[in-house]
Design brief:
Chain A: It holds the Pfam family BPD_transp_2. The complex is a heterodimer of chains A (411) and B (316). Chain A is mainly alpha-helical and 411 residues long. In chain A, the strands form 2 sheets. Chain A has a two-stranded antiparallel ribbon with strand order 1-2. Chain A has a two-stranded antiparallel ribbon with strand order 3-4. The relative contact order of chain A is 0.13. Chain B has one domain. Helices cover 74% and strands 3% of the residues of chain B. The chains are: A mainly alpha (411), B mainly alpha (316). At the A-B interface, helix 5, helix 6, helix 11 and helix 13 of A face helix 2, helix 3, helix 8, helix 11 and helix 13 of B.
Chain lengths: 411, 316
């Protein structure tokens, strides 16, 4: 922990100063979304990454926490009781924890497919009952609240998004710190052991079920906290926040970021939130790109973006990271050309009569020349990647072999 | 009352057999490769869309013949270039891969065919009532659906248990290494089984498209129910899949037809609550309302009390 103090200080400083850098309305709104999704993705990683439990219904705890938080906001507004808005995420967390204790008591008996299917079933059950119990879940319209009631926190009434950001950032820091500390506790280490080899863990005398149950409850708690933040930020919540779509989204985030690493889900949440907010303005087809990116990640980077970065550790230790820069560049340029041409083709086929601006060119769906240019660019890009790949592979192999002065150096 | 029961049974049979067409391919793929294919219902949707496009040129029967072939080829390609690579990263990666594939296929369908509902019609040949019971007609197309499903079950059962190909497939499920040593190309067998499984889903799509409407959400509607069926029936068991499909189909159909619920139950118990009670939603609940929930309830109960499913013999 002592060694990591600079990292945590840097994290805290970044959280404090980020809104000064991205101070537009859109910037703050994206940062707000990130705080929510990072906590949620990290809590999902406690299940899948640390505990080896693939869940298709993690949004249940997020959503239940969120619904209860909105109801708590309304109770505060109605002056049923006095409670500070700043502590609302705790309400969400408590609800998530209670739900996780209840559901985890029978679902954590097995991991693997059985667990995944139970989580799917429970998720669908809760979604279906959310439409039945319209009083609590508000039917299809959802429930709305207002965060500006309740006692002000040192004069802050959370009218502005920026004020909400600092509340979210505080909870993000606290939640991240506790989730990291959890991985260092015996319970967290045993979760890894049960993930990797449940049989051995049983032989040493641990109940795999109890170990999974503890991770499951902790994950539910933090998912609920994220749900509480969601309630404060958006001031409304609908059935969509507990259905399979949200569960799938958090799975995507954790997987694209990198499951085995603590920082992975953070990376994934940041990337996906950015794509969600920025790309959706430019293209109707952004979900298609997201799907392709996800599949490519699963096929080529099974350990996610964080895993890709960590792959370079050996080259770094060999002090040969520099030799990789040129081959990477040579492969990346045609790859980017191919990517741009592919995106161009997708967009062009969807433009209708509109003109597609493409790096200074004006392309129209009717002209054969436009299609020709894009297809040619795609072909050149693909060919370039194909030709430069052997060189990259050779450079990679070289960078990962020990350097001359390491060889035979037995100490 | 009796006529409601008969029609609920018939409708449940149609739904159940449709579910079985999907579940048969899914369970075949699972018993072979240990992969629960999340994208299975997406191949069903692809079948419906391809058949819609092809039927404009070749008619319904051309669609029924060629759409499953195309879907099967796509399925085989997915196995060859996607799943086989991902297989090295373990079971979770495979599940996540098919999950992503389902997402991608839905987006791709919206990209190529648009977001609106397609006007895909059943052929005029079947525009008559097969029989009339209690003044209600039972359309010939539904009879055709039942016939096709029975045909598939029969053919599949015959091929798997009585033919040489079936013996090789069964052997590569239990002893892949031995089968490979005998000179059979096991990866090729895997690819073909995946292709055939997805093609079966394609057939289901072609047939269900006109009845259940062809739209981009049709995979999501059926997707998780098919899982429920396969898990309840016991992973990897074909007869189990048939029983569970019929069970789920009938259960839902009866629940929708039965007009009873909490008010009747409370009346029986001699209790009553006025409408201002905080749990009013609970006291006015009736069976048709909870019909969509029942399969999932059954799934959770089965997984808790008999994780192997009704006819299955393995847990993972």
């Amino acid at each position: 922990m002592k060694k990591q103090l600079p990292v945590w200080l840097g994290f805290a400083l970044a959280l404090v100063f980020l809104p000064s850098i991205f101070d537009s309305v859109l910037g703050i709104s994206i940062l707000n979304q990130m705080t929510i999704w990072i906590i949620f993705a990290l809590s999902y990683n406690m299940l899948l990454g640390q505990g080896g439990m693939l869940s298709f219904g993690h949004a249940v705890y997020f959503g239940l926490g969120g619904f209860m938080s909105v109801h708590a906001l309304n109770l505060i507004a109605d002056e049923v009781f006095v409670f500070s808005i700043t502590l609302i995420p705790l309400v969400g967390g408590a609800v998530g924890l209670v739900a996780a204790i209840f559901i985890g008591s029978f679902s954590t008996r097995k991991s693997g497919t059985v667990f995944a299917m139970i989580s799917l079933g429970i998720g669908e059950l809760i979604v279906a009952s959310s439409l039945i119990f319209a009083d609590f879940f508000g039917g299809e319209a959802g429930v709305t609240g207002d965060r500006t009631y309740g006692p002000p926190f040192f004069g802050i009434e959370f009218l502005q998004d920026a004020e909400v950001y600092y509340l979210g950032a505080f909870w993000l820091f606290v939640a991240t710190l506790f989730m990291y500390l959890f991985t260092q506790t015996p319970a967290g280490r045993m979760a890894n052991a049960v993930r990797d080899n449940p049989e051995r863990a049983e032989f040493i005398g641990y109940s795999t079920r109890r170990v999974r149950f503890i991770s499951f409850c902790a994950a539910g708690l933090f998912a609920g906290i994220a749900g509480g933040l969601f309630a404060i930020n958006y001031e409304f919540i609908t059935e969509e926040n507990l259905n399979a779509l949200t569960s799938g989204r958090v799975l995507l985030m954790a997987y694209i970021g990198g499951l085995g690493f603590f920082i992975g889900p953070i990376v994934g949440a940041v990337i996906l939130t950015l794509m969600n907010s920025l790309l959706s303005n430019y293209s109707e087809m952004w979900m298609l790109y997201l799907g392709i990116m996800f599949l490519l990640t699963v096929i080529f980077l099974p350990r996610g973006f964080a895993g890709f970065i960590m792959m370079h550790q050996i080259a770094w230790q060999n002090r040969r990271l520099g030799t990789l820069i040129l081959p990477y560049f040579v492969t990346a340029v045609p790859a980017l050309v191919f990517l741009a041409a592919f995106v161009g083709l997708v967009e062009l086929s969807h433009k209708g009569d509109d003109i597609l601006p493409f790096f200074g060119l004006s392309l129209g769906a009717e002209s054969m020349l436009s299609w020709g240019i894009l297809l040619a660019l795609a072909g050149i890009g693909a060919l370039g990647v194909k030709l430069s790949r052997p060189r990259l592979a050779a450079a990679w192999a070289l960078a990962n072999t020990p350097t001359a002065d390491d060889r035979g150096d037995v100490r | 009352m009796f006529e409601v029961f008969v029609f609920a049974t018939l409708n449940g049979l149609v739904t159940g057999l449709l579910l079985f067409m999907l579940a048969s391919g899914l369970t075949l793929i699972f018993s072979m490769m240990g992969v629960l294919n999340f994208a299975h219902a997406s191949f069903y949707m692809l079948g419906a869309y391809f058949a819609y496009t092809l039927s404009a040129y070749l008619g319904f029967w051309g669609g029924l013949l060629f759409a499953p072939l195309i879907v099967g080829c796509i399925g085989a390609a997915v196995e060859r270039y996607g799943l086989r690579r991902v297989h090295q990263s373990g079971h979770v990666a495979e599940l996540v891969f098919t999950f992503g594939l389902a997402f991608l296929i839905e987006e791709a369908v919206q990209f190529f065919w648009g977001r609106d509902t397609k006007n895909y019609q059943s052929p005029e040949l079947f525009d008559f009532a097969l029989f009339t019971l209690f003044g209600q007609e039972f359309s010939a197309y539904r009879g055709f659906m039942i016939a096709i499903a029975c045909l598939i079950f029969g053919a599949l059962y015959f091929v798997l248990t009585r033919s040489r190909v079936g013996i090789i497939i069964q052997a590569s499920i239990s002893h892949p290494q031995t089968v490979a040593n005998l000179g059979h190309n096991v990866p090729l067998i895997f690819m073909c089984v995946f292709g055939v499984g997805t093609a079966l889903a394609g057939v289901a799509g072609v047939i269900a498209g006109p009845v259940l409407t062809t739209f981009p959400g049709m995979a999501t509607v059926l997707g998780s129910i098919v899982f429920v069926v396969v898990v309840i029936g016991g992973l990897g068991s074909l007869p189990g899949a048939l029983i569970a499909s019929l069970l789920v189909g009938l259960l839902q159909s009866y629940a929708i037809a039965a007009d009873v619920g909490m008010p009747e139950l409370l009346h029986l118990l001699g209790l009553s609550f006025d409408s201002s009670h905080p749990l009013n939603d609970l006291w006015t609940l009736n069976l048709p309302q909870i019909a969509p929930v029942l399969p999932y309830l059954l799934l959770v109960l089965v997984l808790i009390f008999k994780p192997t499913g009704l006819m299955g013999n393995r847990e993972q």
